[in-house]
Every structure is written in C-alpha cells, then in structure tokens.
Amino acid sequence: MTDWPLPLKASCLCGQVKMTITAPPICTFACHCRACQKLTGGAYSLTLMLPATGLKVEGETEIGGLHRPELHHHFCTHCKNWLYTDGFAEGLVNMRPTLLEDASWFIPYAETMTTDRLPGAQTGAQVSFDGFPGEADFPALMEGFARHGARPG
C-alpha cells in the first residue's frame, strides 16, 4: 500500500490535540451499533483502523465513552471530541476520520452491526456485517480494502 500520501494530519475540534497518521490504514469502517450511535449522536461512527505505531498524538487525552476494561475511548480534555479508540486488538487503533484536515475522500469499506442500522442510514460501504467481523474475516477485509478502498487523491 504505497499509494497513500502520508503523513495525514488531523486535530480535534478545538485544536489542542493534533494527530499525524504515518502508516496506511488497514481498513475503514462504519459501525451502526447502538453504543456508537449514542457516543457520536449520529447514525453510525466512522473509523480508520491503523497500526498503533502509525498514529502520533500530540496533546492531552482522557478516557471516556464506555469505560470498558478492553476498550479505551480517547477524548480531548478540552473540547471532549472523540479522537480514537485502542485496546480492542493488540497493535491497532481506530481513529475518527472526520478529524482529518481533508476527509472528503473517506468512504468506509465495510460496515458493522447492520442489525442496529437506523432506517435510511447509508454508508457507501462495499461489505456489510450483521455483527462485528470475526478474526477470520480480517485477511479478506484487508485485501479488499488494499485493492478497492477509498484513499486520498
């Protein structure tokens, strides 16, 4: 995946937390679960799944959201913007792509938890899952995203 114009820059709403993406995403998602709906106040949440080493964060964050032992939802301490999540899989983070300086290219490759999808909520995703994809689904997701996933121009 050498066709990514890295680094990509991002920041929270107030600008006190700045992020730099230095590695290509593994996949992009839209999650329709009720927790993401409540956390975002929208029909779904959007995610850039990255190697954790590919996300550099400058500024202070705090843990919020669901406060589950296995998940860490990081928020800006000032504007309370949801920035990224870690702890769900070793070595990976889910970053909010709407925080990118230019998110105009973003289309999720896959959508999850479609059983909770709100009527009329469309994502443009090429692949859908009723629940969350299993570990066995990831090689095909990563390969499909590498070949057909949206990326910055």
Strand fraction: 25-35%
CATH class: Alpha Beta
SS class: mainly beta
Task: Report the total helices.
Answer: 2
**Approximately how much helix is present in the residues?**
10-25%
The name CATH uses for the topology is glutathione-dependent formaldehyde- activating enzyme (gfa)
Q: How much is the radius of gyration in Å?
A: 15 Å
Tell me the distance between the termini.
14 Å
* Largest sheet geometry: 8 strands, mixed
Give start-end ranges of low-pLDDT stretches. none
What does this structure look like?
By secondary structure, the chain is mainly beta. The protein has a single domain, classed as glutathione-dependent formaldehyde- activating enzyme (gfa). It has 2 helices and 11 strands; from the N terminus they run βββαββββββββα. The two termini are 14 Å apart.
Question: Can you lay out the helices and strands and say which pair or pack?
Answer:
Layout: E1 8-11, E2 18-21, E3 27-31, H1 34-40, E4 45-51, E5 55-58, E6 61-64, E7 72-76, E8 82-86, E9 92-95, E10 110-112, E11 127-128, H2 138-148
Parallel strand pairs: 3-10, 10-11
Antiparallel strand pairs: 1-2, 2-5, 3-4, 4-9, 6-7, 7-8, 8-9
In short, what is this structure?
The protein is mainly β.
Keywords:
153 residues, mainly beta, glutathione-dependent formaldehyde- activating enzyme (gfa), 31% strand
